Amino acid sequence: MNLSVLSCRYYINLQKIYQAKAEADFLAIEQRVRNILKRIGREPYSIPKTTIKSFCRNARKLIVCRYRPIEEELNSPVLSELQKYLTDKDYRFPGLHVGEMDEDISRLKTIAVGLLGDLGCNGSALTEDLINEMCRFGVAELHAVAAFIGGVASQEVIKLITKQFVPMYGTFIFNGIDHKSQLLAL
């Protein structure tokens, strides 16, 4: 017998095994769905077989997303530090006044290192170049960076509204100087 014919037979047999397992899994899930619907007082056949079959076909793509509660976000030490900084009567954007650049660099570095320390991160990893660039741009907003961040934010909103795809989990950081982004779980 030809080797390719044997290979085809093995493949067809393997395919039949997978189809039988998929059918058995579908029947088990269908029975579970019917029992749950009956237990909660709904018509057991209110969810059609086609919907259950589609669910079974796509179940491998499911993921459980667990996020921090909003209370935890609002009680974050970072938020209180930022509020303290933003409610300072002498607050101004770093780099707003050219003559005060050195003071702004020093102040921003102190605040950034403090925030990173509160989060348990190494503040010494923060380079002078990044702080200098943030102060150098002052209140300027680069349109390309704003468009990129707006696109990322709108993509995440669409994911949440449509309940499709997996939203980002963590803090998204974009470095417009080096054109790099990173997602951190803090």
TrEMBL record:
<dbReference type="GO" id="GO:0008641">
    <property type="term" value="F:ubiquitin-like modifier activating enzyme activity"/>
</dbReference>
<protein>
    <submittedName>
        <fullName>Uncharacterized protein</fullName>
    </submittedName>
</protein>
<dbReference type="InterPro" id="IPR035985">
    <property type="entry name" value="Ubiquitin-activating_enz"/>
</dbReference>
